[in-house]
Amino acid sequence: MNANPAKVEKQLYKLAKKGDLDALSALNEYYEKCVAEAKTPKESSKIRQKALKAALLGAAQNSPYWLIVVGEMYRYGVGTEKNEKKAFSYYEKAAALGDADGIVKVGRAWLNGIGVLTDYQKSLHFFEKAAEQDNSEAMILAAYQYENGKGVDVSLFMGKLRKLRKRFLSLFRRAVFSPDQLRTGSGFAMHSFMIHILQQRFIIFSVFFRQFSF
Fold it and tell me: Does the predicted TM-score (pTM) go above 0.85?
């Protein structure tokens, strides 16, 4: 966007409006750069409003990624007034499409009372649902609820914990032996970081599991 940024911005927005998600991503990157270079809060605010308007185009295409982005913008008041109920509605739309990240967002909303009243049983339901897709964040959050007795049916506790631990171990093994993560320097760094995190979480699982095994 060196020659005429305003013209290129207009072209990207036009393409995004037609459903081109690649153009939308490029437009979003441009807005992020503009925000970083903004000289006043007012200028930054106007750019964020544009970014929300653009993100809504992706949400209108039922893109789980953009539904979550819009949800986050409403949750934190980026480019708009803070509105947690609206944020939750966008998380729900992403979750309804089967997106694991969207499902986790809904679970977190029920867990922390974001746009809804806290309901531990509902949050655990969504974390377990995302865990079935091998989402490590959901596994950790479900384990947290098991450990703290939040929304847990005690009679089903040990069976679910065993199942969750088994899934987490499977995810850890795939992370360790996946060659796709090692192709680039940045990929290797992220791969090593993920292995470290998974190792720490698996240790927690193992210790906690032994405490309740009988």
Answer: no
Dihedral sign, CA of 21, 79, 44, 7?
A: positive
Contact 152, 164 (CB under 8 A): no
- Could you write out the DSSP letters of every residue in 124-192? HHHHHHHHTTT-HHHHHHHHHHHHHTSS--GGGHHHHHHHHHHHHHHHHHHHHH-GGGGSSHHHHHHHH
Q: Which two tokens stand for residue 187?
A: 């990929």
- The whole-angstrom separation of Cα 129 and Cα 107 is 9
Give the pair of three-digit tokens for residue 209: 């599991």
Q: State the Cα–Cα distance between residues 126 and 29, nearest whole angstrom.
A: 31
Give per-residue pLDDT as tens, 123-178: 999 999 999 999 999 999 998 888 888 887 655 656 666 676 677 667 666 655 55
Structure tokens at 184: 């680039």
CA torsion 46-52-56-59 (nearest 10°) is 170
